[in-house]
UniProtKB/TrEMBL annotation:
Organism: Oceanibaculum pacificum
GO molecular function annotation: acetylornithine deacetylase activity; metal ion binding
SUPFAM superfamilies assigned to the protein according to its UniProt record, in alphabetical order: Bacterial exopeptidase dimerisation domain (SSF55031), Zn-dependent exopeptidases (SSF53187)
Name of the featured protein: Acetylornithine deacetylase
Domain Peptidase M20 dimerisation: 164-271
Keywords: Amino-acid biosynthesis, Arginine biosynthesis, Cobalt, Cytoplasm, Hydrolase, Metal-binding, Zinc
InterPro entries given in the database record: AcOrn-deacetyl, ArgE/DapE_CS, Bact_exopeptidase_dim_dom, Peptidase_M20, Peptidase_M20_dimer, Peptidase_M20A
Entry's family note: Belongs to the peptidase M20A family. ArgE subfamily.
Amino acid sequence: MIRRLVGYDTTSALSNLALIEDVKAYLASHGVESRLTYDEAHGKANLFATIGPKDKGGVVLSGHTDVVPVTGQPWDTDPFEVVEKDGRLYGRGTSDMKSFIAIGLALVPEMVKADLKVPIHFALSYDEEVGCFGVKHLLADIVANLPLPRAVIIGEPTEMRLITGHKGVSDYRVKVRGVAGHSSMPQNGVNAIFAASTLIEAVKRMQEEAKQRLSAQDFEPPYSTYNIGRIDGGTAGNIIAQDCDFSVEIRVIPEDDAAALEAALYREVAALDAALKAQHPQAGASVSLNAGVPPLRPETDGAAEALLKHLTGINQTGVVAFATEGGLFQDAGMSTIMCGPGSIVQAHQPNEFIALSQVEAGEVFLRKLVAWARTAD
């Protein structure tokens, strides 16, 4: 099943419908119905399917079907054909995170025969890698039409560790507009790059303030972080720059106030906008949110954490800096935890792989879940 799923090129820029239709047909062959929710263009879809009683909340196995691009990466093999070598399976999505989905799907025949008392749900999403856009439609459908699941397992690669928290992430685009002119007469124009540099300095100040304000010792680093990862501006060395755009990413620890951090960024941009318009009516600055994902907050006596501790015998939990769909499930009212085979270190890399030992560990874990769901209330 891992080979089957990895064989579909579901890079986020492409459709995932071929994979989704294949999974839907596979589930149907075992008597399992699927619910699909689509993007506006009907070129991508989420899938939600239930095995067991449909009038109970149950446990969700959640995974995203999209993968990051392989363009420009030096792969030694075809990234969309699984290659087994030295106890590893190589291929795009083997670690992040088609192996988790595949292990679960491979156990569907056993789930169907098990006469589950507690339902097990599959929640497969699109566009996680570019902002977790797809799962929002899936969650809206669950909340509006289905019993709310009691627990959600996000199968991101954690090496089967129990992860109860992660940082949230928001990605912004700042646009600064100046007035072009010959560089020999700067008094006749407004330099957008100069203006943007004041905002960049403000972002650097925000980072220093975040370091001093809060410390979540479980995270590395233990504070909210800012990054400016891309900047574009100007047309030539002898022209006053008319435009300068740059990205701002904020990764927020659960203890921090994401809304306050966003408001501070918007205030800085608004102040610059006013200052530029005072110089020239055509100048200005604006900011927009491209994508935002809330943090996953460690739960006190969470149902998902309690269940996985019971199934695995693991009492230690941790947190990670990268973001997932987990915070969205949690914000929709579902107890959520991360636990899945593979390592995030291999994710997004050329020659991405998952160790066969991790696949085996994931299978053992999900078999325990099935056994529990046969008898639990």
